[in-house]
C-alpha cells in the first residue's frame, strides 16, 4: 500500500473534488452542460458555491478533471486487454462511446477548447490518482492523454512520422467530431458512428 504525507485538510479537499466531479458527470448523463447549475451540484454534494469555486474555476474544469481520470483509467484498462494495433484503437473508441455521458462530455470539452485561447492544464497530484484508482497507481500508471493512447495503437503501423501525424489528426477529429455529428443528426448510437468512422480511415496494413 502506498503511503502519502497528506494531512486531513488536503485529504478532504481531494475527496471533495472527486465527489463534485462524480456528481457532475452523473448529471451529464442526462443533461447538456448549459442545463446544469453549479448550485444543483453543490446541493447534491452538500457544499457551498464558495467551496465549489475554491476547487474548480468553472463547470468546464470539472469535465477536464474527469477527462484526466478517464484517460488514466483507459490506459490501465487497455493494458489489461493486451490489445495492439487496430484492435487497440477500436477498443479505445468503444470504451469511450459506451460511457453514458460520452456525447455531452466530448461536446463540452470541444466547446471549451474552441473558446479558450490560453489553455493551461490543471494539476492533479499523485494522491488524487491513488484515491481514484489505487490498483492502477500501485501498478505504476500515471496521467496520460488520448493522443498517447492512440499512439500505442499506431506504433504497430510501420510508416513515416508524417503519416503517423496525419492519422493522429484524423483520429482526434473523429474522436470529437462524431459526438458533434451525433448531436446535429439526432443519431442514437455513438459507438456505431465511431465504428463506421474507424472503418473508413484506418489503413488496412495496420494489423
From TrEMBL:
InterPro entries: Homeodomain-like_sf
Organism per entry: Fusibacter ferrireducens
Name of this chain's protein: TetR/AcrR family transcriptional regulator
